[in-house]
Design brief:
Structural class: alpha+beta
Distance between the termini: 24 Å
CATH superfamily: RutC-like
Strand content: 15-25%
CATH architecture: 2-Layer Sandwich
Number of domains: 1
Oligomer: single chain
Strand order of the largest sheet: 1-2-5-3-4
């Protein structure tokens, strides 16, 4: 099996974010006994990021009951912003070190009968491509959960390749 060689991100990420009006929040501190990211063998593994905005959770509850699909997609996008903030911290603010987004895994708290977990996580996936272009295309899993910490509707973790 051939191993795909990663290419550098083709354009200036800071300019790309600015042109799209994307503002990254400060990287959040961990909510428990773990670190927000770990660098190993050219990759940054980022702990699950919740949809936190200014230290609060604008969306709570289960998708399909308390949270609409559209609001859950917005929440997943916020998870993506928080992931980008963490990778930015992990690379000491030097976007030139970022090669690509390798993988996302989204966990969605769904009401009984709700099964559109991939549609929720699309909010984060779409942001990665918007922010990083082709370097934002990634492998992904979208998993349903009975409930998530702080009663949030979605949490997303990620792996990025870095130099």
């Amino acid at each position: 099996m051939a191993v795909e060689r990663s290419e550098p991100v083709p354009e200036d990420i800071e300019a790309r974010l600015s042109a799209r009006g994307i503002v990254l929040p400060a990287a959040a501190s961990p909510a428990a006994n773990y670190v927000p990211w770990v660098t190993s063998l050219g990759h940054v593994f980022i702990a699950g990021q919740a949809p936190i905005v200014d230290g609060r959770y604008p969306w709570t509850g289960r998708v399909g009951a308390d949270v609409s699909l559209v609001d859950a997609q917005h929440a997943a996008r916020v998870c993506g912003l928080n992931l980008l903030a963490q990778v930015h911290a992990a690379i000491d603010g030097d976007w030139e070190r970022l090669v690509r987004c390798v993988r996302l895994c989204g966990y969605v708290s769904g009401a009984p009968g709700f099964f559109d977990f991939p549609k929720v996580v699309d909010g984060c996936s779409d942001l990665m491509v918007e922010a990083l272009g082709d370097a934002g295309r990634h492998a992904r899993s979208a998993i349903g959960a009975a409930g998530l910490r702080f009663d949030v509707p979605v949490i997303v973790d990620a792996v990025f390749e870095v130099r």
